[in-house]
Amino acid sequence: MLFDALTLQLGYNATLVAIGAALLGIAAGATGTFLFLRKRALVSDAISHATLPGVGLAFIVMVALGGDGRSLLGLMIGSATSAALGLLAVHWISTRTRLAEDAAIGAVLSVFFGAGIVLLTVIQTMETGRQAGLESFLLGATAGMLFSDAVTIAVGGAITLALVILLRRPMTLAAFDPTFAATTGMNLRAIDLATMGLALAVTIIGLKIVGLILIVALLIIPAVTARFWTDQSDRMVVLAGVFGGLAGYIGAAISASAPALPTGPIIVLVATALFATSLFLAPDRGLLAALVRHLRYRRLVHIRQGLLALAQGLPIYERYSLHLLVKAGLARRDGVATPEGRAEAAKALRDEARWAAARQGQSFEAAAALYDGLRPLESVLTPDELAGIDARLGPPKGVPG
Amino acid sequence: MGEEFVILSLVPLLIGILAASACALPGNFLILRRQALIGDAISHVVLPGIVAAFLVTGATSAMPMLIGAALAALAAVILIEAVTRLGKIEPGAAMGVVFTAMFAGGVLLLEMSDTSAVHLDVEHALYGNLESLIWIEATGWASLTDPAALAGLPPELGRIALSALFVSLFTFILWRPLALATFDEGFARTQGVPTAALGLALVMVAAVAAVAAFDAVGSIIVIAMFICPPAAARLMTDRLGHQIAWSVGFATLSAVLGYVLAGYGPLWLGADDAVSAAGMIATVSGAILGVACLAGPRRRGVSAA
User: Fold this and answer.
1) Is the CB of B37 less than 8 angstroms away from the CB of A105?
2) Does residue A72 contact residue A96 with C-beta atoms inside 8 Å?
3) pLDDT tens digit string along B55-74?
């Protein structure tokens, strides 16, 4: 069943939903990257909650004009309007008053959402409102989605994605170095506005599939996930798009494969699974890589300190140091150095002495800054410089057995 | 007025006021510490907490659910901190990852488990049902002294009153260290204030307020009350004590005005049915904040004052 869904063989509607969700996920991941880099990820939470009163008002207006009230395009226009108002309110509160942006975000999202709930209860009492099903916009619902709705979502996702590709240069610059961007004559406010506009577009398009409470996850999680895999913004945008697209596609497919699996939450949980995997397994920035790095470092420190102790004829108190030395064949269990151990210890001692000499004068200032107690000086200085230091130190001392 | 008011409106009004004030108190510190959105995160993870508690105990009794919600809040705070530190991710984004993921998990659990027999659904979790908390046993104002009638009070009232008391005591007893740590964390540390523990305690107290309020009024009001009254109060004064007094005043005003407007507003406009009280209370608190933004004497901060 799941395989059928993943290979788009679960019927026309499920296929449309999966493709729409994938496009939406790609657009959301790419857009979210710029929000994340600009450290404004949670602004999208205000945007998404602020759509609710627009949905309600649009329904009421459409019914008052004699329409059906459930036209997705009409509801999307309404939600875009109120979300834009919410965005303006966040901007206005955080620039014109002493309140910080986080307070502005929280205030806007809760108040707009509250007003939206009031409108929903008004609609429930209306003649046509009982079957309006506007609650489905809270958590998204794809069951019984109309063909025209699916097309609207797919087209909207594609347009948003095209805009992201078009605007990626100025948005990257604004995210990394706003001051420089401004000096090169870019209109920062316009760029920020465009970024927010794209986030708004993603939110509106995602209302039907993911729902307004969870759409913010699709803007944040893929971008954060992508951050683990690269340090380059171009790649990060692409990766975030891939993660978002995967989450949308797989999530929609899973949810189509069984009843009672709500689409929005499943998509978010797939995105979360990708995030958790990256958090643990990503090279360099992942937890596993960090753990390996830490253990390797600890090992080197222990061996080095053990060798220095041997060189100075001191007992090795650290059991882990002794264990490592024994395993490497450098010492015996009772803490006495083997011939190889004596050679290595002499080398370590010589290196320490060289470092001490190098760090004393001004001549090797740049190299001396690299001292970390592990790196051999040979790897930092040229043979000639090393010979100069050795000349001052005299011949190397052996380690007595 | 009189009998009908006591039966239908007294208890919801009291619960509304207590819930709003209990959330507004810690909200003051959260706003000043730039942690306003912690309230947002907490109120989202309450849902997975109560669903998990329901699945574990199989009952909808209040205590396990409150404990489940509190544990979920604690888990969320720890996870946010873990993602921030371990993943070197900006705190705002880390928060966004954690609370949306937990909320999604909660919704999924709820949809997949058989909760049709009990009163547990997403809409209820979001905007509660303040209007339904009526005092059936009451016969009039005299019931306030009648033990038999008092025993029939909705249990939510007792719980929110206890939490409000707890939150007030916390604020009152730890006033000095809290104020110190909020305004100058470095200085507070030199004075021997355990700022990290205090910060966690503040978040946990906020969680207690959120969970108790959620029980009665739903999560959207919780976020609104964490942020709007303290934010409006912040624009009225530069003194912390005054700010807290203003915030409780604004919270009370929001609860009363919101409840009355939701219950009677539609009647005045010629409609028959009341609208959501929780939504209206949030809306009123937003209106108060709006007025404060336009006209609050300290809206521009100290430098421009």
Assistant:
1) yes
2) no
3) 888 776 778 888 888 899 88
